[in-house]
Structures are given as C-alpha cells and as structure tokens.
Design goal:
109 residues, mainly beta, Hypothetical Protein Aq_1857, Chain: A, 4-stranded mixed sheet, 1 helix, 39% strand, globular
Length: 109
C-alpha cells in the first residue's frame, strides 16, 4: 500500500494543525488516465465511507477508496524541493508507466 516519507508526513501534519484538521484523515485518490499515467488527488476528509481502507503511515491517518488500492500498491508520497523555496508533493509509483525511479546518489555497493 501507499506509504509516506517523513518529509511528506511532516508537511501533512503541519497543514492539518494550521487548518484545525489534526484529527482528520487524509484521503488520497488515484485514477488511470487514457495514456496509462496515474492522476492523484488528496485532501482532508472528515466524512469517511464505510468501505474505505484506513491505515497510518508515518503517524498520518490515511483513507483510500478500495477502487484505488491497486493503483497505489508500493507507491510513496514524498515532499521535495524542486527549485529553491519551491516544494511539492510527488508520488513515486511503480504502477505508473511514466514512473522513473530516482537515481541513487549514495555510494554503490
């Protein structure tokens, strides 16, 4: 299932605190586009649905519609700086045909 990096979790928890949504789950949705790519959406959701899959990652309560589960299997949500001062959430998802794994900048073994 989907997991969060510590950077993504910190940003989500900070946003939840700032907006008074500390005890509200983050809903993440995914759908496949016509070219095979996966499109995502997310937002705090205090309504919940009976068939939702609910779980925690890095201390963040997440909810996902069962129809989205296969699209997000082994995906990671990260929060990265693209340009100085420009941060964005990104999904690293091996289920997306356009996904390219990040290059390992560490020493090779």
């Amino acid at each position: 299932m989907l997991s969060l990096t510590p950077a993504a979790a910190d940003q989500i928890l900070n946003s939840a605190r700032e907006s008074g949504m500390e005890h509200t789950a983050l809903r993440i949705v995914a759908q496949r586009k016509s070219d095979g790519a996966i499109e995502y959406g997310m937002g705090f959701d205090d309504t919940g649905r009976e068939d939702d899959l609910a779980f925690k990652s890095e201390g963040v309560q997440l909810v996902v519609d069962p129809l989205c589960v296969d699209l997000m299997k082994n995906a990671v949500l990260d929060y990265v700086e693209f340009e100085p001062g420009e941060f964005r959430f990104i999904f690293l998802n091996p289920n997306d045909p356009h996904y390219r794994p990040p290059e390992d900048s560490g020493p090779s073994s």
